[in-house]
Each structure stands twice: as structure tokens, then as C-alpha cells.
Amino acid sequence: MSIVKSSRGKDKLLLEGYSYRRANNSQSIWRCSRNNCAGRVKSDGGEYITITEHVHTPNPDENISTEFKSQICTKAAICHDPPRRIIHEALLNIDQADGAAVPTYYSSQRTIERKRKKNDIPLPRPQTFSEILIPDELQITNSGARFLLYDNHHPNRRLIILSSDDDLDRLSNSDHWHCDGTFKVYNISLLKLIFFFFAGVPSTFCSIIYISWFIIRSIFTNGLLLYILQR
Description:
Elements: E1 2-5, E2 11-15, E3 18-22, E4 29-32, E5 40-44, E6 47-52, H1 60-78, H2 83-91, H3 105-118, E7 148-151, E8 159-162, H4 165-172, E9 178-181, E10 193-199, E11 201-208, H5 213-229
Antiparallel strand pairs: 1-2, 2-3, 3-4, 4-5, 5-6, 7-8, 8-11, 9-10, 10-11
């Protein structure tokens, strides 16, 4: 049993696979979170007594997910720790057998970002390349078109590709591609390099942590060629 905060900041009771909200702002009566269910319990000295039975089966996985999201949102609102640390600490409270019920790392990362944006909390300064979090407003161009083409979120082989659809068209219509990179000038703390692919003008930017055949292959097979073929 636990009481957490909902996405709207309201109290939510998680009990035996069911979730409840306060009934008419009552301090002792809780009603099922589902609008089509009249299930109710009453708190009495730390115990919860069923008043009305539910019309549906319990969903423990949903409660595990809800509690996890509440934990990371609460922590995100009171500290400037990077998302990776917040998620890791929350996972320590999850039983290994319940791991499948927890949201993915990417989903949890976005949940933290939205919470901090809503509360006007500045994003933490990343200390490593894997901690970089691109806000939603920077994933699109000024005209609202897609700009973040690919992000594999790999902890050790992170690859980010930025390109607009117009720039992909320029690449696909060009007979020759050229590439260059900031091989000597880069941020030591983030250990990243930037590749520039261009057909006449700079068009596509790939940010990586180090050079390897795996990264180079991913740039083309999972990034540029894949999206160009979809055009």
C-alpha cells in the first residue's frame, strides 16, 4: 500500500492492485480511479476496509508503473540530478520480478523532462555524453518540422543524428557526399565529436562519443540511408 501523487498533483492510493482517488475530497473514503467503477475503501486507523467491490480485476503492474513515475517526478521537482541518476535510484526500490512493469528508460527520461519543464526547473548540465537530453522544442525546426532524425540512447555507443527533411532531400539528390568532423576540437567533458555531411551546404549533423566501425555503420544503415530511402 502507498499513497502517491497523480500527474495532476492529487493524492492517489495504490492498494492490492487497485488505484483510488479521494471521494469528494474526503480524508477517509477512497473511490476507484476508473470512472466506470464504484469500488470504494475506507481508511480506519491505518487499515483499509472495502465498502464497495470493484467491477474489474486488479492490475498490479499498473500500480508499479504509477508508483515509479511518481517517485521520479517527485525527485525531479526537488533536485537537479541528471535523469539517469534519478531513474537508477528509483529502480533500486523495484523488485527484479516486477521489472517488466517499469516504463522504459527513454519514457522515464521524457517524464522527468516534462515535469521539470512544467515546473520551470532548468535542465541539469550533462557531465557525460549519455546524459544529454534534447528538449522537445529543440527536436524540431523553427517551422515545426522534424530535426532530430535519430537517437539510439545507447549508454556506451550513443549516436545522435540531426537533419531536416529538406536537407535529406538535398543529400539524396546529390551525386557526391562530403564529410568532415571536429576531430581535434571537442568538449573533453562530453567526449563527443561532430560529423558534418553536406551536399553543397552543411545539412546533416552526427554527434558521437568516439569513432568506430559500429558507429560509422549505424550512421548510414540506421540513420541517413534508412531515412533517405523512406523519402
